[in-house]
Amino acid sequence: MTAASLRKATDARRSVPPGASAATSASPGLALYEQIKAFITHRIQDGTWPAGHRLPSESELVAQFGVARMTVNRALRELVEQGRIVRVAGVGSFVAENKPQSTLLQIANIASEIRARGHDYRCVLMVAERIAASPDVAVWLDLRQGESVFHTVCLHMENDIPVQLEDRHVNPRAVPNFLEQDFSAMPPSEYLVRNVPFDQIEHVVDAVLPTVEQAQRLAMPAADPCLLLTRRTWTRGQPVTMVRCLHPASRYRLGSRFRADGNPLFG
After folding, report:
1. Disulfide: which of 24, 29, 49, 119 matches 39 by Cβ 3.0-4.6 Å?
2. CB 101 within 8 A of CB 254
3. Which uninterrupted H or E stretch holds 164?
4. CA distance 174 to 119
5. Where residue 136 sits, what CATH number does that domain have?
6. Whether this model's pTM surpasses 0.70
7. How far is 83 from 228, CA to CA, in rounded Å?
8. Is 223 inside any structural domain?
9. What is the mean pLDDT of each run of 10 residues along the chain (267 residues)?
10. Residue 231 sits in the same domain as residue 105
């Protein structure tokens, strides 16, 4: 090895930030943001950073790699798009878990789903009120426009990360004592499933962008997509509830499995 090539190799080794993986230093042709992505991806794939692990902050990565903040931001943004990490506004970036999947063929109990994964569940009741039915709610619940209707808004949390914003309207004719319940002990969704029999369910899923307020409540960028599940239930032909469940697409997915004869596979 010539003196010039030795100096070049030494300089290359010095340019690798402390703690950077072999994947980073072995790919000198990669753009800087791609080197950061490779470094993080390698840590995830080799198990050094398991699901839920908190990544170094943007400032720490800037200092570690000696690059501009926008370079680090691009790397993290693309890792979010690839589903490798999740970013929670004001909290930090975390290694993503496999996105939970909720069934479309039955009414899922989100609290049970989260606890079954060994995670902490929390429901924040944000609104519980009696209001006049808007034109669309009146049509969906077979009420007169302006007729009294119950309204609740809940934020469902998994390990203190918002995964679902639930906006629900309930028909007072079907559940007259709905607002008399203690929703701190049992969320509205669980109360209805346990106490109000239903014989029909309708599910509709749309891809939407959240409003600014919804994005703030879900601690996500307003430009990121969401999955909106709209559910209606009936008992003996009478509408019971209409609920819109908004999920950040990067944290949740919706799906079902069923036999060829059309019967669902539960459990």
Report:
1. 24
2. yes
3. strand 161-170
4. 34
5. 3.40.1410.10
6. no
7. 19
8. yes
9. 42 43 50 89 85 91 93 90 81 76 56 85 96 91 93 95 95 95 92 86 89 94 91 91 92 59 41
10. yes
Output the furthest CA–CA distance in the chain (Å, rounded).
88
Provide the number of structural domains found in the chain.
2
Residue 258 amino acid letter: F
Last residue of a domain, one of 95, 117, 140: 95
Which amino acid, residue 161?
A: I
- Domain assignment present for residue 260? The answer is no
One-character DSSP codes across 19-53: T--HHHHT-TTS-HHHHHHHHHHHHHHTTSS-TTP
**Domain residues for 42?**
3-95
Q: Quote the DSSP letter at residue 210.
A: P
Pairing label, strands 200-208, 226-235: antiparallel
Structural contact between residues 158 and 119, judged by C-beta atoms closer than 8 angstroms: yes
Instruction: For the chain, list the strands marked E by DSSP.
Output: 85-88, 92-95, 101-102, 121-132, 148-158, 161-170, 200-208, 226-235, 238-248, 253-254
